[in-house]
Amino acid sequence: MAFKGKLQLSSLNNINSPEVNSFQLELIPNQTIQLDISAPTSGKNSPLITTGLHQSKIQASIKDLISITGDLTNPNKRDIEVEQGSLTATIQGSNGDSTVQLTASGIQCHFSDISACNFELKTKVPQLYERARELAVTNLSSTAKAKIESNLKGQKFTLESIKVSGEKIATKTLAADRVNLDIPTVHCEVTEPTICTLPEISSQFGIINTEQFSLSGDLNFLDSIVTIKNGAAALDSEFNSNNLEIETSEKYKVNSSAKGKLSLQHNKLTSHSQIKAGAIKIDLSGSYDLSKSSGGVEFSVPEVTFSTDRSLNDTIQGLPLNIVSGRLSAGGSVSLHPRSKDSIHVSLDDIAATYKDSFATGISGDLKVENEDGHWITPTPYSLSIESINAGLPVKNIQLSLQLDKQKDITLHNFSADFLQGKVTSSALIWNLAEETRKSIVHAQGISLEALAQETDSENFEASGLINLEIPIVTGPEGITVEAGHLQGEAPGGRLRYYGAFSPQMLASNPQLKLIANALEDYEFQTLEGSIDYPASGDLQLQLKLVGRSEAIDSDRDLVINLNLENNIPDMLRSLQASRDLTETLEKQLDQ
Q1: How far is CA 346 from CA 326, 334, 407, in A?
Q2: Spatial distance between the Cα atoms of 342 and 332, rounded to a whole number of angstroms
Q3: Burial tier of 64 (Cβ tally within 10 Å: 0-12, 13-18, 19+)
Q4: CA nearest 242: which of 224, 223, 218?
Q5: Cα separation of 480 and 334, whole Å?
Q6: How far is CA 258 from CA 210, 218, 313, in A?
């Protein structure tokens, strides 16, 4: 380092120990010094150790001339002034993963009984890696105005007009891009412990990504207090946000606001907060252990009342499910790594919901799931009632008890429903969430063919009579299938009118088909029996045998007709859904 200067001596009476009255010193720019430093630390998890900065190489240089003057005439009060100038320093950690660049400019210092320094500080961190928490920082920069004071009692410093920006900050569980902080002031008392107060912190972030969701928007911290003792930091703060957008991995979006308090003590982060999104309010109490990457949250959703003007889709965008009426409340506790104490409960009261082009009304009941040995289960079957479900054909007055077990089986116990003026029942309907194969039996009694014809708006089909069915249902990787179901008509039979289904060309070339077509135009059956199959393709296959009479053929003689019918059920339901106005149909159902 090069410098020039002059000394003023009081006298040369004692040549071996001259007295200096004053001095002037100028540090010449564009000179570089290099140092190897080893900073004292406490604890193996001290940030200086885990970032590798406890043993560093420092390269410092003076960019603009620094002038130092001193008045030493009063031995009880020696005054030293530092004016002008700027200097830069680059700190390279011993592990090579952490680099910090510092620039101090506009330096003004006074050293006396009370010493003070003012300067502007710029910091750049091209890269920094904190080993204990696997924290990686890329292209972090900051600017601030700094003031440092010291006396016999200790030191204090103040930072003002702080602006921080970061390209990327990442840990094992999250990554934040385009982070910006605006901090009007920070004041620290360097004692034991060191205490820093931050009245306000405004933050904006482009996006924060985790495995489950992403977060963007702003977050503000108020009345923050940071305490540093033995190298460990603690934090207490309030926070709020008027603009938080959450997007799940399934592309569901929520715009929300939040407020609360948080605390960091001994590497454990705790918070108490409230989130508001549309009609929904969620109260949260959570904790997260930074050293173990573990934590959990307790939540409560006070009762929410939904309406067509205040629906679930107004709160959560992108959901195929929408709640348009009724009341809902929920609560529970969930851990980042599920444990046996976790539970979720939901209460439904007269809920009306749509799913794509289907809807359900009058859903009521309480549900609770608990985590037991890593499996989500219901501790007991829970009763549910549903006024109606309409996916094209209406199903009404649904009653069931729902249960989820360790094998991931969802079982609908004691299922019953009204369908086409008849009754559908099953002692147990089973669906496995892991898509393992499960078998169930469904019984249907008194299903009205007349109601079926009316609901399907068939232009070439009229019918009367009642049928009973036994349907063996298989659920699994192929969805829902039926093998060898059985169908049988109730006495005394019924009537079929099936007309206009065949073209004149088909009838002209097939006399037997013409005979059957004529018979079905007005056919009264005494018996009806057949089999039902429903493969994964969705093509319902009916093999029917009817015994009856037709005026068009011979009213005094029984006529046996064997029919093989096929109809794609998903296509039929979509056609029925398309033929109606969903909103109008739902409103009519809600008005009943």
Answers
A1: 13, 14, 22
A2: 7
A3: middle
A4: 218
A5: 32
A6: 19, 10, 19
Q: Is the dihedral of CA 209, 215, 218, 224 positive or negative?
A: negative
User: Over the stretch 133-192, which tens digit does the pLDDT of each residue have?
Assistant: 778 888 989 999 999 988 877 789 899 999 999 888 888 877 888 889 999 999 998 888
Q: Which residues contact 95 (CB under 8 A, 6 or more apart)?
A: 51, 52, 129, 131
Distance CA 495, CA 551 (A): 12
Cis bond before residue 492 (omega within 30° of 0): yes
Tell me the backbone φ, ψ of residue 551, rounded to 5 degrees: -60, -30
Host H or E run for residue 231: none
SS3 labels along 480-536:
EEEEEEEEEECCCCEEEEECCCCCHHHHHHCHHHHHHHHHHCCEEEEEEEEEEEECC
pTM score, whole prediction: 0.77
pLDDT of amino acid 48: 65
pLDDT for 571 equals 87
pLDDT in tens, 462-495: 899 999 999 999 999 999 999 999 999 999 999 9
Asked whether 558 and 548 are in contact (CB, 8 A), the reply is yes
**Beta partners for residue 495, in sequence order:** 464, 524
Q: What is the C-alpha to C-alpha distance for residues 396 and 423, in angstroms, rounded to an integer?
A: 10
The mean pLDDT of 373-399, rounded to a whole number, is 93
pLDDT of residue 575: 81
Give pLDDT, residue 503: 72
Instruction: Using alpha carbons, select from 342, 414, 423 the residue that is nearest to residue 385.
Output: 414
Which amino acid makes up residue 418? Answer: D
How does pLDDT run across 18-43, given as a tens digit for each residue? 677 777 887 778 878 887 777 666 56
What number of other Cβ atoms are within 10 A of residue 23's Cβ? 16
The CA angle 308-313-316, to the nearest 5 degrees, is: 150
